[in-house]
């Protein structure tokens, strides 16, 4: 890929082959930032996964950086008030299922009570393509509406390894204090280690890099726990 002058200028300001400590790497991301908007700081972690292995979960970062999420709760009529009181932006059953079928997607995350999944499952072609399908593995299919909505409003973020074994996840903004971004990364790496498959081999984490949306990647010196 051919990069512009600003990107190449940033690349020349540091050693692109060096492994940097987390805090130093986060400061470099800020120093190399050249775009006129508040870029997202993105972490990429390459994992050593076998064909039958995957990594997927959610976490809440200690330092938030995203706008408050619009939460849609699929639930029976008798639980609508509970969902709205908990902070959901929208809540209901048949009326919202029909709206989504018609292409309405003015929400950021969907939650469903277990008794609604028979109907919500029919929205797979719409919600699945957008990554919005409620899933018990990410805590978005649950009878605990209040708990799920509260966690999402606090910024609970989902992560999962793609087909190549790489996890891409936003961890901050370039406008944030570098120490806060570094703490978010450390929190994520701890959670990633916790979700390591029980039969994972040595060298589970192949590499870790961080960058701004437009900037070059900086390799992080990450050592797995023995």
Q: Please compute the radius of gyration using only Cα atoms.
A: 20 Å
Q: In terms of structural class, how would the helical and strand content be classed?
A: alpha/beta
Q: Summarize the helix and strand pattern as letters.
A: HHEEEHEHEHHHEEHEE
* Fraction of residues in helix: 25-40%
Characterise this structure.
The chain is α/β, with parallel strands linked by helices and 226 residues long. The protein has eight helices and nine strands. The protein has a four-stranded antiparallel beta sheet with strand order 7-1-8-9, covered by helices on one side. Strands 4-3-5 form a three-stranded parallel beta sheet, with helices on both faces. Helix 2 (22-32) packs across helix 8 (178-194). The longest helix has 17 residues, at 178-194. The two termini are 37 Å apart. The model has no long low-confidence stretch (mean pLDDT 91).
Notable traits:
226 residues; alpha/beta; 4-stranded antiparallel β-sheet; 8 helices; 9 strands
Would you spell out the secondary-structure blueprint of this structure?
Elements (H helix, E strand, L loop, with lengths): L4 H7 L10 H11 L7 E8 L8 E4 L11 E4 L5 H7 L3 E3 L1 H8 L7 E4 L4 H4 L3 H4 L17 H9 L3 E4 L5 E8 L4 H17 L10 E8 L5 E2 L7
Parallel strand pairs: 3-4, 3-5
Antiparallel strand pairs: 1-7, 1-8, 2-6, 8-9
Helix pairs in contact: 2-8, 3-7
């Amino acid at each position: 890929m051919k990069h512009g002058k600003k990107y190449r200028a940033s690349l020349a300001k540091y050693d692109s082959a060096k492994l940097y400590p987390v805090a130093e790497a986060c400061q470099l991301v800020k120093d190399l930032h050249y775009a006129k908007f508040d870029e997202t700081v993105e972490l990429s972690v390459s994992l050593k996964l076998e064909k039958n292995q995957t990594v997927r979960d959610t976490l809440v970062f200690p330092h938030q950086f995203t706008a408050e999420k619009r939460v849609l709760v699929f639930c029976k009529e008798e639980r609508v008030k509970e969902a709205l009181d908990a902070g959901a932006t929208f809540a209901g059953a048949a009326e919202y299922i029909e709206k989504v079928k018609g292409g309405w997607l003015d929400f950021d995350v969907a939650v469903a009570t277990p008794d609604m999944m028979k109907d919500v499952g029919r929205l797979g072609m719409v919600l699945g393509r957008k990554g919005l399908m409620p899933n018990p593995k990410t805590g978005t299919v649950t009878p605990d509406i209040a708990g799920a909505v509260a966690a999402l409003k606090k910024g609970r973020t989902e992560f999962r390894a793609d087909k190549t074994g790489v996890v891409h996840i936003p961890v901050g903004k370039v406008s944030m204090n570098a120490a806060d971004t570094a703490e978010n990364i450390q929190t994520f790496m701890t959670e990633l280690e916790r979700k390591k498959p029980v039969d994972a081999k040595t060298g589970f984490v192949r590499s870790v890099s961080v960058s701004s949306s437009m900037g070059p990647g900086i390799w992080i010196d990450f050592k797995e726990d023995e």
